[in-house]
Each structure stands twice: as C-alpha cells, then as structure tokens.
Amino acid sequence: MLIHNRRHADLWTLLAPPAIWALHFLLCYVLGSVACAKAGDPFAAIPLPRLGVGLATLLALALILVAGRQARRHWGFGTADPPHDDPTDDDRQRFLGFATLLLCALSFVAVLFVALPALTIADCR
To answer: Over the stretch 5-33, which tens digit does the pLDDT of each residue have?
Structure first.
C-alpha cells in the first residue's frame, strides 16, 4: 500500500486513504487493549501505548496528506468543474482524483477522531 508518484489515478489510489485509516484504527485499538489487558488494573497509566498511538497518528496523517496531494494533482484543481461524468479518460482521471481527495479529507478527520481518546484518557477506564 505504498503511495508513490503515479501518472494516472486508479482503484488503488482511491482505496489508499480509507485503508490507512482502517490500519490506524486497528493499530490504535490493539495497542490500547493489549496494554490494558496486561496491566490488569483499570486505573493503570498507559504512557507507552499513548505514545505509540501518537506516532501512528502522525504517520497516518502524513500518508493521507501525501495521498491528498497526489489526488489533487489527478483532479487537476481548477481545470474543470465537477461533475466529471463524460466517458473520456480525462474525466475519469478527474473523477477519481476528486473522489480520492474527498476520501482523504474524510480519512484525515477520522484518524484524528480515532486518536482523540489516547489524547484525553490516561488510564484504562
């Protein structure tokens, strides 16, 4: 799921941001649940998993921003207005770029919301 400089948008480009969000979600909740299960005490502080969630969040946000930058380029910001529904290769690229850009925005906000409990909750309660 590496994001690299693609000339043309495709299905992998479209799926990258939600996949990053899903992996981030899984990692955050696995880190938290394993740490709390090992601690055994609901009032135990969990600083290392919180740090792990913070680092995973920064990485996920950076990857989503890279995908968003690429999607913006595929969309051709300012060259044509939506809807991109003509049966041409250019419109297909613009549609995929625009849809990917919207998914990047959604995924960015979702990653922030997934990381929010690690920021506000310091123990296993």
So the answer is: 456 666 788 899 999 999 999 999 999 88
Residue 10 lies in a domain: no
Query: Would the pTM count as exceeding 0.85?
Result: no
How far, in Å, are 31, 41, 94, 97, 122 from residue 77 at the CA level? 39, 52, 9, 9, 42
Q: Is residue 34 part of a domain?
A: no
In the 8-state DSSP scheme, what is residue 8?
Answer: S
User: Would residue 120 count as lying in a domain?
Assistant: yes
Residue-wise pLDDT tens digits, 53-74: 999 999 999 999 999 988 888 7
Structurally, how many domains does the chain consist of?
Answer: 1
Q: Tell me which H or E stretch contains 96.
A: helix 89-120
Taking the C-alpha atoms of residue 11 and residue 15, their distance in angstroms, rounded to an integer, is 6
The structure tokens listed for 88 are 């041409």
Range of the domain at 116: 45-125
Q: Tell whether 33 is covered by a domain.
A: no
